[in-house]
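testing teh design pipeline on a random one, pls ignore if ur not involved
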C-alpha cells in the first residue's frame, strides 16, 4: 500500500520541479531574445533597463536616498539584480502553473513581456513604438518556450522506452530544455556583442578628441593647497574615483561627431544648434571646481574636486539673445535635457551672474569620461548637481519655474538648491584605534561660490579649536584642513564644523538630504590606545 501511495507523489513532485525549470528557461529565453532585439533597436529598450528605469522614476525619494547610502555607486547593479531575482521567482511560479494549466502559464510570461514593453515605450527617452518590440517579442518567445516545454511534460513515453515509475518522456524533455537553454544563451551572447559594437563609434569619437588649449587657463594650484597628510582626500579627485550618482542604468555612449546641442525657448531671439566641433572652436575656459550631490549625507563621499574645461554657458546663451531676469529677460529657469530623458532646472540668473558656469567637455586634462557625461555636461558652481549638472546634455530650453517642474522637483525636491556649507573628517576613520600622543585630524570643507574662511575641531564636549587651513585655490573649490590633536587614552568623539566667507557657521541641526541638502556637524568616534 505504501508503494502505491509513494510513487505517484514522488512522480508529481518531480513533474512540478521540471515545470519550475521550464518556467525558468522560458524567462531566460524571453530576456535573451529581448537582449538581442534591444541591441538592434537601442540598449535602453531592453526590459531590465526599461523596468529598472520605471522603478527608479516611481521610487519615493527617501527610498532612493536609502539605496544610495547602503549601496553607493552600486545601487543600479543591486536594482538590476533585484529585478532579475523577482523575474526568476515569477518564472518559477508560472512554470509550476503550466504543469496544470499550460496556456495560463504561457500567457503569464507573455503578460510580463507586455509590462516590459509598456515600461520601455513610456520612458522619457523613448524614441517610438520600436522601443516596445524587444520586450513584446521576448515575451512571445518565452511564452512559446514554456508552452512547448510544458507540453513535453504531458507527452507519454514512447513504446519500448518505459522505465519504472515514469509515465512521461523525461529524456525528451531534457533534450528540449537543453536546446532551449543553448538557443537562449546564443541569442544573449550575440545581443551583448552587438551592443558592444554599437558603442564603438562613440568610443572612437572620444579617442579622436584633442582638447584645445583653453583661452582662459586655470591658475596653477597654489602651493600649500594640497596637504601632505595620510588619509586625507586628494586635492584633485582622479576621474576614476569621482563619485557618480544618476538614474542611468545604462551609461549613454554618445558619438561626438553626431552630437548636437539645441538652445531654444522663452526669451531666445536666435534659436541655435551647436555641434561638438562648434563648441571646441569657441574660447574655452579651464577651472577647478568642486561638485557635490544633494544626496550626500553629512560626512558622505559624494563630493569631488576636478579641473574642468568648457565654454561659458553665459556666452552660449548670449549668442542666442538670452538675457537674465535682472537684465529684463522673461525666463528665470534653464531646463537642460539629457539624451536619457533626464531634465534638470537651473536659475538663469545664477548661470549668467558671472560665475564660471560652463558647458564642460574636459575633466582633469581628458575628454569627459562616458560615466561623467561625454561629450558634454553642465556645471554651475555653488549649486547642487540635481539643479545644475546635467550629463549627456542635448537640449537647453529657457522657461520659467512656474511653467515647468523638472524631474527631481516633481519628486518633492526643492526647485532651488544652493550648496550648503559642509565639512568632513577624512582621518582618523570612524572606530579607528590611534595611539596616544599627537594624532593628525584632517579633512575637507566646502562652500562653493562663497569660500571657506575657518574650520574648527572639537574633542568630546571640549571647546572648539581652530584647525589649520590649506591654501585656498578659489572660492569654488574645497579646502583641506588639519588639526594636531594630543590624544589621551580612551574613547573620544571628534567633531568638525566650518564657517564660510559670509561669516555663516555650519548649523548643528541634523537634517536629511531631502529636499535641499543635508546639514549638521560631522563626527567620528575613535578609541585611543
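output:
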Amino acid at each position: 500500500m505504501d508503494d502505491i501511495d509513494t510513487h505517484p507523489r514522488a512522480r508529481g513532485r518531480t513533474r512540478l520541479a521540471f515545470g519550475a525549470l521550464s518556467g525558468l528557461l522560458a524567462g531566460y529565453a524571453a530576456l535573451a531574445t529581448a537582449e538581442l532585439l534591444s541591441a538592434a533597436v537601442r540598449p535602453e529598450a531592453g526590459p531590465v533597463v526599461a523596468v529598472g528605469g520605471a522603478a527608479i522614476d516611481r521610487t519615493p525619494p527617501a527610498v532612493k536616498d536609502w539605496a544610495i547610502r547602503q549601496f553607493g555607486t552600486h545601487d543600479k547593479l543591486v536594482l538590476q539584480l533585484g529585478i532579475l531575482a523577482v523575474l526568476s521567482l515569477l518564472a518559477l511560479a508560472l512554470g509550476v502553473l503550466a504543469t496544470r494549466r499550460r496556456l495560463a502559464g504561457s500567457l503569464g510570461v507573455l503578460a510580463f513581456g507586455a509590462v516590459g514593453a509598456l515600461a520601455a515605450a513610456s520612458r522619457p527617452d523613448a524614441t517610438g513604438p520600436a522601443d516596445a518590440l524587444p520586450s513584446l517579442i521576448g515575451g512571445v518567445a518565452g511564452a512559446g518556450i514554456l508552452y512547448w516545454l510544458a507540453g513535453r511534460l504531458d507527452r507519454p513515453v514512447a513504446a519500448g522506452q518505459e522505465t519504472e515509475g515514469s509515465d512521461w518522456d523525461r529524456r525528451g524533455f531534457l533534450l528540449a530544455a537543453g536546446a532551449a537553454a543553448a538557443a537562449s544563451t546564443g541569442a544573449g551572447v550575440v545581443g551583448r556583442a552587438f551592443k558592444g559594437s554599437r558603442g564603438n563609434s562613440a568610443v572612437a569619437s572620444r579617442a579622436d578628441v584633442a582638447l584645445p588649449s583653453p583661452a582662459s587657463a586655470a591658475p596653477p594650484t597654489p602651493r600649500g593647497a594640497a596637504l601632505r597628510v595620510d588619509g586625507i582626500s586628494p586635492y584633485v579627485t582622479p576621474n576614476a574615483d569621482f563619485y557618480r550618482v544618476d538614474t542611468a542604468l545604462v551609461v549613454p555612449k554618445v558619438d561626438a561627431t553626431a552630437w548636437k546641442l539645441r538652445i531654444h525657448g522663452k526669451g531666445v531671439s536666435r534659436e541655435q544648434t551647436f555641434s561638438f566641433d562648434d563648441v571646441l572652436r569657441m574660447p574655452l575656459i579651464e577651472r577647478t571646481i568642486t561638485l557635490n550631490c544633494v544626496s550626500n549625507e553629512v560626512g558622505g563621499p559624494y563630493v569631488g574636486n576636478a579641473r574642468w574645461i568648457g565654454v561659458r554657458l553665459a556666452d552660449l546663451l548670449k549668442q542666442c539673445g538670452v538675457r537674465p531676469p535682472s537684465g529684463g529677460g522673461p525666463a528665470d529657469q534653464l531646463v537642460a535635457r539629457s539624451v536619457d530623458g533626464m531634465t534638470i532646472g537651473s536659475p538663469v540668473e545664477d548661470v549668467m551672474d558671472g560665475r564660471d558656469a560652463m558647458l564642460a567637455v574636459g575633466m582633469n586634462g581628458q575628454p569627459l569620461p562616458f560615466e561623467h557625461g561625454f561629450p558634454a555636461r553642465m556645471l554651475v558652481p555653488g549649486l547642487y548637481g540635481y539643479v545644475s549638472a546635467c550629463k549627456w546634455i542635448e537640449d537647453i530650453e529657457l522657461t520659467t519655474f512656474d511653467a515647468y517642474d523638472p524631474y527631481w522637483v516633481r519628486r518633492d525636491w526643492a526647485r532651488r538648491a544652493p550648496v550648503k556649507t559642509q565639512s568632513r573628517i577624512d582621518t582618523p576613520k570612524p572606530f579607528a584605534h590611534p595611539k596616544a600622543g599627537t594624532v593628525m585630524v584632517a579633512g575637507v570643507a566646502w562652500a562653493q561660490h562663497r569660500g571657506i574662511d575657518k574650520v574648527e575641531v572639537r574633542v568630546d564636549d571640549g571647546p572648539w579649536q581652530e584647525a589649520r587651513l590649506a591654501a585656498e585655490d578659489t572660492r569654488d573649490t574645497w579646502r583641506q584642513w588639519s588639526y594636531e590633536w594630543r590624544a589621551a587614552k580612551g574613547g573620544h568623539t571628534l567633531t568638525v564644523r566650518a564657517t564660510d566667507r559670509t561669516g555663516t557657521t555650519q548649523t548643528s541641526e541634523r537634517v536629511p538630504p531631502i529636499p535641499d541638502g543635508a546639514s549638521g556637524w560631522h563626527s567620528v568616534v575613535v578609541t585611543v590606545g
